[in-house]
Write a structure and sequence with these properties.
Length: about 450
C-alpha cells in the first residue's frame, strides 16, 4: 500500500485482525510509511507480532486500548548480528537499526509475553530462570538519531526492556514499564554508549536495574545523560552507572526521583577501565527495604574486573539531598591501588527501622557488585563506609537509628585511607552512646567538631 506524505496508515486497513498474528501486515505498514513522515496506527485490539523493523521518519502509534503482543514462538524473532552477551540475545520485538527521526507513542501497550521465555518460578520470592533463547532486549535501538519513545506502557519483557546503543538525541518520556519483580535480567532502560539522552516522567517497576548507563565494548562513550522525575521500583539498582564501563561515562544528572523496594537506589561502578566523572545526583527519596542482604542506598565501587583490566576512575561526583529509609549502608570503595576522587556527599538522611549486620553475611555474599577483595570494608559496622577516597566532602549527614536499638555497635562513619577533604556531620551519632562515632584508619581528613 502506498502512502501519501504524512497520511496515517491503519494496520487494519491492510488486513490486520485483532487476536491474530499480524507480523507481515504491520511490517508492510512500516515499510510503506518509511521516509514519508507518516504514522502507522495500531487501533484498539490485540495484535500479535514477531520482529518488526522501524524505518526512517516513521511514527508508530499504539492507541489507547491497543496492545502489540509479542509472539510466544522464538522462531518469529530472526536473530540479529550485532554484539551480544548472555543478557543481550539476538532476538527482539522492535528493532531500530541506524534509523533517524523515529517516534513510538500513543497510550497503548507493548507486551513482551515474558513468561513464555522463562522456566517456572520455583518459589514465590525466587529469581526466575530464563530459557536458553528469549527476546532480549525487547526494544533494540542501535545507532539511531532523534528517537522519541513516549506515552506507552511496556510490560512483561522477557529480558532487557529498552536498550539504546550508540544513539544520539533520544527522548524517553512518560513510559510505564511493568515487569515481573523476579524476572531474569529485566532491566527497564539501558543507555549504552549514547550521547544527549533525556529520560523523564517514567514509571518503572522491574526485577533488574531500572535505569542504567553502560559503555560496553561494542558501544562507545556515554555522555550528557539526564534522568529526572521518575518513580522506580526495582529488585536491583534504581539509578545506576556500570558495571560495564569499557569507555568513559560523563556529564550525567540523576534528579528528583523516587526509588523503592530496591537493593541500591544510586550505584556508580567502574570495572572495565573507563572513567566515570562529572556526575550529579540530587533530590532522591528512596528505601532499600528489600528481602536481600547488604542493601546499599548509595554505592560507589571502583575496581578491575580482572587483573589484566586497566584501572578506571570515578571522580567529580556530587550526591545531595537524599532521604533513605534503609537497613543498610552507604558504601564508597576503591580497590587497593586506586582512589575515588573528589566525592561530595551532602544532605543525606539515613533512617533505620532495623539494621542489617554485615558481619553475618559479608563473606557469604558473592554477587558481582560487591567488593569481595576487601572484607574489612565489606563487613564494617557503620552507616557510611569509605575506603580509598581522595578529597571526600561529607557534610550534613543525619542518621536516625531504631528506637531502643539493641543490636551490635555501629559507627556513624568507618573510613580508611581517606586523603584530603572534610567530615562535617554533627547529626550523625553512633548507634548508642559510648560507641566511637568516627572510626578512621590511616586517614588524613579534616573533622569538624560536633
Amino acid at each position: 500500500m502506498a502512502s501519501s506524505h504524512g497520511t496515517p496508515i491503519y494496520i487494519t486497513d491492510l488486513g490486520a485482525v485483532s487476536g491474530t498474528v499480524c507480523t507481515g501486515v504491520i511490517q508492510k505498514a512500516l515499510d510503506a510509511a518509511a521516509d514519508r513522515g507518516a504514522t502507522v496506527i495500531i487501533p484498539p485490539g490485540t495484535y500479535t507480532a514477531g520482529t518488526l523493523h522501524l524505518r526512517n521518519r516513521v511514527t508508530l502509534e499504539i492507541m489507547p486500548g491497543a496492545t502489540l503482543l509479542g509472539s510466544a514462538d522464538i522462531d518469529d524473532y530472526p536473530p540479529m548480528t550485532w554484539g551480544h552477551n548472555r543478557d543481550r540475545q539476538p532476538h527482539h520485538l522492535l528493532v531500530l537499526d541506524r534509523v533517524h527521526n523515529v517516534t513510538i507513542r500513543g497510550g497503548g501497550t507493548i507486551d513482551g509475553l515474558g513468561p513464555a521465555f522463562w522456566c517456572p518460578q520455583t518459589a514465590p520470592q525466587a529469581w526466575i530462570k530464563p530459557k536458553e533463547h528469549r527476546v532480549s532486549p525487547l526494544i533494540e535501538a542501535v545507532g539511531c538519531m532523534d528517537l522519541r519513545i513516549e506515552d506507552v506502557a511496556v510490560t512483561n519483557s522477557p529480558g532487557w526492556t529498552v536498550h539504546l546503543n550508540q544513539c544520539e538525541r533520544a527522548f524517553l518520556s512518560r513510559l510505564h514499564i511493568r515487569n515481573d519483580f523476579f524476572g531474569p535480567n529485566t532491566d527497564g532502560i539501558d543507555i549504552n554508549g549514547c550521547t544527549d539522552v533525556i529520560v523523564t516522567g517514567c514509571r518503572i517497576d522491574t526485577g533488574d536495574d531500572a535505569v542504567v548507563l553502560k559503555s560496553t565494548p561494542d558501544s562507545g562513550p556515554c555522555q550528557r545523560i539526564l534522568v529526572s522525575d521518575c518513580s522506580l521500583r526495582t529488585n536491583c539498582a534504581g539509578l545506576k552507572i556500570g558495571t560495564e564501563t569499557a569507555y568513559d561515562v560523563r556529564q550525567v544528572v540523576f534528579s528528583n526521583c523516587v526509588v523503592h523496594d530496591c537493593t541500591r537506589a544510586v550505584a556508580l561502578y567502574s570495572y572495565d577501565g573507563g572513567t566515570v566523572e562529572d556526575v550529579s545526583v540530587t533530590g532522591i527519596v528512596c528505601d532499600t527495604l528489600n528481602q536481600w542482604w547488604l542493601n546499599r542506598p548509595i554505592q560507589l565501587s571502583l575496581r578491575r574486573r580482572t587483573p589484566d583490566t586497566p584501572r578506571g576512575a570515578i571522580r567529580n561526583v556530587l550526591i545531595s539531598n537524599v532521604i533513605a529509609r534503609t537497613d543498610g549502608r552507604v558504601v564508597l570503595w576503591a580497590e587497593e591501588g586506586s582512589m575515588l576522587e573528589n566525592i561530595t556527599i551532602r544532605g543525606v538522611r539515613l533512617s533505620y527501622d532495623k539494621v542489617d549486620d554485615p558481619v553475618r553475611t559479608a563473606e557469604a555474599a558473592r554477587g558481582s557488585q560487591f567488593n569481595h577483595d576487601n572484607l574489612d570494608a565489606k563487613s564494617a559496622r557503620a552507616a557510611v563506609v569509605a575506603d580509598n577516597v581522595r578529597n571526600l566532602d561529607l557534610a550534613g549527614l543525619a542518621i536516625d537509628w531504631p528506637a531502643n536499638y539493641a543490636g551490635p555497635d555501629f559507627h556513624a562513619v568507618w573510613g580508611r585511607n581517606l586523603r584530603g577533604g572534610m567530615i562535617d556531620a554533627p547529626l550523625a551519632p553512633p548507634s548508642r552512646e559510648g560507641v566511637e562515632r568516627l572510626h578512621l584508619e590511616a586517614s588524613d581528613i579534616r573533622i569538624r567538631d560536633v
